[in-house]
Amino acid sequence: MRIIIIGAGVIGMFSAYELRRAGLQVTLIDRGPPGKHSSWAGGGILYPVLPWQFPRFMFPLITWSIDFYRSFCEDLASETGIDPEFVSSGALFLGHGQDAEALDFVRSEQIKAEHLDAQKLRFEEPNLSPQGSAALRLPEVAQIRNPRLIKAMMVWLRDHGVEIMSEAEVTGFDAPTPRHVQALHTTMGKLSADAFVLAAGAWSGDWVARHLHQPLAISPVRGQILLYHRAPGYLRHIVLSPRGYLIPRKDGSILCGSTQERVGFDSEPTDEAALKLADTAAFLLPELGNQRPEAHWAGLRPGSINGIPYIDRHPGFDNLYINSGHFRNGLLLAPASACLLADIILKRDSAPFSADPFRLYP
Q1: CA dihedral 220, 226, 229, 235 (to 10 degrees)
Q2: DSSP class of 87
Q3: Dist CA 309 CA 354 (whole Å)
Q4: Taking 90 as the threshold, does the pLDDT of residue 352 lie above it?
Q5: Same-domain pairing of 201 and 273
Q6: Helices (H), the chain
Q7: Angle, helices 146-159/59-80, rounded to nearest 10 degrees
Q8: Last residue of some domain: 276, 304, 332?
Q9: Domain containing 18 — which CATH number?
Q10: Pair (250, 132) in one structural domain
């Protein structure tokens, strides 16, 4: 069985990984360079930004994906020589140390957590702003360096026989019968397959509207990030606050993010966002106020209704599937989403979670 995946971001790559491991012939195509949109631009936090406001039915996918990443990244580094830098750095949620909603979430989900008063917070992160009075610490929250993950996955996919085509934009498709797609027309020629997966991220809704003439509630949401650099260990935890977040990397890099802007397909970073993010960085880590950021970039997230992705067969076609709309959690949910998609395509009945909440048109 041959399958073509439209979109070579992290969702498309994990879909290709899972389907190739199941024995399918897989071609991965992208309108640009693989992995160069939100998959590359995101911060790489392997947890929801405000988990107690996240749909509870999605937590089986979250916990499954995180458990998967723990061993997968080690194996991937060994096999490809590229370390994705999975790190259980823990997370500090500033201002939520005694938040009733947060504490109820911790109790109901049986999550390891700790309340840090001002003194404990100062001990754990002495460089944080003294204005932070308390925090909720979730010590098992992890992160991954997404650009390195993408590079490693590209190597794995090619080494295992997945065909990867860049600069191949879809321009149309052949559907000789009303419910069956036979081939795609692309800027690199006609591509035939037995089944097709749409994993085009922020462009998925536009693709469905143009080629299928049907609505799909996925639209681009721009996010911008600044990069600073300090000595390794200067900041040890991921820090999340109402103003934004900080993510420390192993080499001392610190990411400050992020914006949420509905500006269509404009992915250019802006001076206005840079000033806002720099103000956030200085508020949380005062010494960053005296330092110019080393880089500034933007990406387009695939926004969807309530941030809930679509993982399903398209109801109008028997061989077209959609895996998209993950909003801010594509990297986090990619492994479980790909597993669920493969279960649907291959009609496997061993799924660790139900597909019902992710139906395209319930």
Answers
A1: -80
A2: B
A3: 13
A4: no
A5: no
A6: 10-21, 38-41, 59-80, 100-109, 118-124, 146-159, 204-211, 271-284, 330-346
A7: 70
A8: 304
A9: 3.50.50.60
A10: yes
pLDDT value of position 360 = 67
User: What span, in angstroms and rounded, lies between the C-alpha atoms of 26 and 194?
Assistant: 10
The residue range of the domain holding 17 is: 2-77+146-217+306-358
3-class secondary-structure state, position 258: coil
How many angstroms separate the CA atoms of 107 and 219, rounded? Answer: 35
What percentage of the chain's residues is helix, strand, coil (to nearest 5)?
Answer: 35, 25, 40
Count of domains observed in the chain: 2
| Residue type present at position 220 | P
**Secondary structure (DSSP) of 66-78:** HHHHHHHHHHHHH
The stretches of 256-348 forming alpha helices (DSSP H) are 271-284, 330-346
Per-residue model confidence (pLDDT) at position 27: 97
Preceding peptide of 258 cis, ω within 30°: yes
- pLDDT tens, position by position, 13-68: 999 999 999 999 999 999 988 888 889 999 999 999 888 888 888 888 999 999 99
Residues 86 and 223 placed together within one structural domain of the fold: yes
Amino acid at 51: P
* Domain limit, last residue, from 304, 323, 349: 304
* pLDDT higher at 247 or 347: 247
Residues 322, 275: one domain? no
pLDDT above 60 (res 362): no
Residue 283: what residue type?
F
Q: Within this chain, do residues 224 and 199 fall inside the same structural domain, yes or no?
A: no
Read off the tokens for 131: 């204005």
Q: Span 216-244, mean pLDDT?
A: 95
Whether residue 70 sits in one domain with residue 16? yes
**Is 315 found in the same domain as 278?**
no
* Residues facing residue 321 across a β-bridge: 197, 313
Could you give the CA distance from residue 16 to residue 164 in angstroms, rounded to a whole number?
10
- Residue type for position 238: I
Orientation of helix 59-80 relative to helix 330-346, angle to 10°: 100
Q: Could you tell me if 201 and 11 are in contact, meaning their C-beta atoms sit under 8 angstroms apart?
A: yes
| Residue 281 and residue 229 share a domain | yes
Buried b (16+ CB within 10 A) or exposed e, 59-80: bebbebbbebbeebbeebbeeb
